[in-house]
Amino acid sequence: MVGSSMSGPEWLLEVVLMVMLAATMFHALRLERALGMLRRDRAALEELVNGFNDSTRQAEEGIERLRAAADGAGRQIARHVDQARGLKSDLEFLTARGEKVCDQLEGIVRNPKLPEVPTVDPMARLLAPAPSLSLASRGVAADHDARPRSQAEKDLLRALRSGR
After folding, report:
1. Contact 128, 161 (CB under 8 A)
2. Whole-Å CA distances, 133 to 124, 137, 142
3. In this predicted structure, what is the pLDDT of residue 124?
4. pLDDT on residue 135
5. Are residues 22 and 98 in the same domain?
């Protein structure tokens, strides 16, 4: 076959094989570029997945902290509600007593007969001599009355007597 020439269909088959080989090489180059991009993107994707995992873990920890804070706030609110209930019962008691006293005062104000209360002039009380007591029962009081009065006390007593 050294000197044999190729016939038309063989040439056609060779040309078709060359075109297919060229198309295969073209697609192989495209695939190589796509695989290179995929390798680069795979590293970025791994970083993205790791970041997502970290964010998820932080979110879970944040949820736990929020849950603990909510539990603490709930307990504190429960204590405040208990204190408020105690204060409510105290206020109800005081209101009832206040209404009772108010009713009593209203009855006293509406009652035209008031008991006679002797009025005492405060000046007369101040100027009146102290009731005499025996010396044994006076004890220290006798020493207290026997002391000389200051000038201010004397002036006050004189002013009170002249005002009568």
Report:
1. no
2. 20, 6, 9
3. 59
4. 45
5. yes
Identify whether residues 22 and 78 lie together within a single domain.
yes
Question: For 66-100, what is each residue's pLDDT tens digit?
Answer: 999 999 999 999 999 999 998 899 889 988 888 88
Residues 140 and 72 in one domain: no
Specify the pTM.
Answer: 0.37
> What is the spatial distance between Cα 120 and Cα 117, in angstroms, rounded to a whole number?
9
Q: Are residues 109 and 131 in the same domain?
A: no
Question: Is residue 46's pLDDT more than 60?
Answer: yes
DSSP codes of every residue in 49-65: HHHHHHHHHHHHHHHHH
| Amino acid letter, 121 | D
Top-confidence residue, 116 or 57: 57
Mean pLDDT, the chain, whole residue set: 80
Phi, psi of 101 (to 5 degrees): -65, -40
98 found inside a domain: yes
- 20 phi and psi, to 5 degrees? -65, -40
Same domain flag for 85 and 146: no
Counting the structural domains of the chain, the total is 2
The answer to whether residue 131 is domain-embedded is yes
Residue 163 located in a structural domain = yes
Q: Give the alpha-carbon dihedral of 12, 18, 22, 27, to 10 degrees.
A: 80
**Residue 148 domain boundaries:** 121-164
